[in-house]
Specification:
about 100 residues, mainly alpha, rod-shaped
């Protein structure tokens, strides 16, 4: 049996190294593609979350404005009630003073 010539042996070694490099490159590419797909999926999830949170924020802001308006209205009503009570108490004091003086 004849052994391969040195140039054929060298060529086969170079071919094996080249094939190993191609295989390693293909694996790196596959990993990069998987990472890119994962990032795109994560980005889609984050965009959906952002949209959902924006809707929730808008709703919360609308509720907060409604509560502010209700609080302002309650404050106005309390002020009117306080004024009415003070006026009624003032009239009662005046009437009591008039009765005390005999008027």
């Amino acid at each position: 049996m004849m052994s391969p010539s040195p140039s054929l042996d060298t060529t086969l070694k170079r071919l094996a190294v080249a094939l190993d490099q191609i295989e390693a490159s293909a694996e790196r590419r596959m990993l990069a593609d998987n990472l890119r797909a994962d990032r795109e999926e994560e980005l889609n999830i984050m965009q959906k979350d952002r949209s959902r949170l924006a809707v929730e924020l808008d709703s919360a802001m609308a509720r907060a404005h409604g509560l502010d308006r209700a609080a302002q209205e309650a404050a106005r009503r309390l002020a009117r009630a306080e004024d009415a009570i003070r006026a009624a108490l003032g009239e009662a004091v005046v009437e009591a003073a008039g009765e005390a003086t005999g008027e």
